[in-house]
Write a structure and sequence with these properties.
Blueprint (H helix, E strand, L loop, with lengths): L15 H6 L5 H31 L7 H5 L2 H25 L2 H30 L1 H25 L4 H15 L12 H4 L24 H6 L11 H4 L5 H11 L1 H21 L1
Helix pairs in contact: 2-4, 4-5, 5-6, 5-12, 7-11
Subcellular location: Membrane
Membrane topology: Multi-pass membrane protein
Protein name: Tetraspanin
Length: 273
C-alpha cells in the first residue's frame, strides 16, 4: 500500500490557508512590466550587436586603448549593455515571479530616474537663470574640450563615426566636434580634407558640404573650399557638441516635457515591479 502523507503533518508554509493569504500579483502589472522590458531588451540587444560589429570592423584603426574607449560605438555598447542587463532582470522576474529580480530592477530604474531628474533640473535651471548657467559653463566647456582633444588626438574617427557626424551636421547646423573653430577638425578626421603636403586632392584644406549654410550651398556646391577669413559667412563654425548644447538650452521646455513622460514610464514600471 502506498504511503499517504498526512495532511496535518504538512508544514505551515505549505498549508492552503497560507497560500490563500499570499498577495496576488496583478496580471496587468506583469504584462506591462514584461512587454515594456521585452521591447527594450530587443532594441538594446540589436544596438549591442551593431556596436560590436562596428568595433570589430574598426579595430585596426585604434592606436591605443583610450582611442577604443572614446569611440562613440563603445559608449553605445556600454549604455546598451547596461539596459540589456536590467531588462533581462525585469523579464525574468515578471515571468517567473522572482521578487529578488524585480526588486533589483526597480532599485536600478529608480537610481537611473534620479540621475535623469538631476540632469533635467540642471538644464531647466540653466534655462531659467543666467547666473546659474554661468556657473555650469566652465564644467561644460572642460568636458567638451577634453572630448574634442581626445577624439582628434587619437584619430578615432572611422567611416561610421564620420558618417554620423555628417548627418548631425546637416540636421543640427554645425561642423566638427566641439569649439568655435571646430570645422578644422575635418583636417585631421579625414585624409581627403587633410592639409598635409602629401594630399594633392582638390579637397585639400576644405570641409564637407554638410557644413555649408543653405544659401552658400545653393550658390556654390563647393562652398567648403577656400574658406579664408570669412568662413563663418559660408559655413557653420561651431562644433556639434556646442550646437547640441545650445539646442537643448533653447528647447529646454520640450526636453523637460519629453523627460517627464519617460520618467513617468520608468517609475510606473518600477512601482509595478
Amino acid at each position: 500500500m502506498a504511503y499517504r502523507f498526512p495532511i496535518n503533518a504538512m508544514p505551515n508554509s505549505w498549508s492552503m490557508q497560507d497560500l490563500s493569504d499570499m498577495p496576488r500579483v496583478s496580471k496587468c502589472a506583469k504584462c506591462y512590466v514584461f512587454s515594456t522590458s521585452f521591447a527594450v531588451w530587443i532594441a538594446s540587444g540589436v544596438a549591442c550587436c551593431l556596436a560590436v560589429w562596428q568595433l570589430i570592423s574598426n579595430s585596426a584603426n585604434y592606436q591605443s586603448v583610450s582611442a577604443a574607449l572614446t569611440d562613440p560605438f563603445f559608449l553605445l555598447l556600454a549604455f546598451c549593455s547596461t539596459v540589456l542587463f536590467l531588462s533581462t532582470f525585469a523579464c525574468t522576474g515578471s515571468l517567473r515571479d522572482l521578487p529578488c529580480c524585480l526588486r533589483f530592477f526597480a532599485i536600478s530604474v529608480i537610481f537611473l530616474a534620479l540621475c535623469q531628474l538631476v540632469a533635467t533640473s540642471l538644464l531647466l535651471g540653466c534655462r531659467l537663470s543666467d547666473s546659474f548657467c554661468s556657473k555650469l559653463l566652465p564644467w561644460q566647456q572642460a568636458v567638451i574640450n577634453a572630448t574634442n582633444s581626445t577624439m582628434v588626438r587619437e584619430k578615432i574617427f572611422t567611416n561610421a563615426s564620420v558618417w554620423l557626424l555628417e548627418v548631425a551636421q546637416a540636421k543640427v547646423g554645425c561642423c566638427g566636434v566641439a569649439g568655435p573653430t571646430a570645422y578644422r577638425d575635418w583636417y585631421v578626421m579625414d585624409t581627403v580634407y587633410s592639409c598635409d603636403a602629401a594630399n594633392t586632392l582638390p579637397t585639400r584644406c576644405s570641409i564637407p558640404a554638410s557644413c555649408c549654410r543653405a544659401e552658400s550651398l545653393a550658390s556654390n556646391p563647393n562652398c567648403g573650399r577656400s574658406l579664408g577669413a570669412n568662413a563663418s559667412a559660408k559655413i557653420f563654425t561651431d562644433g556639434c557638441l556646442t550646437a547640441t548644447g545650445s539646442w537643448l538650452l533653447s528647447n529646454a521646455w520640450l526636453v523637460v516635457g519629453a523627460s517627464a513622460a519617460w520618467l513617468f514610464v520608468q517609475l510606473l514600471g518600477a512601482c509595478l515591479s
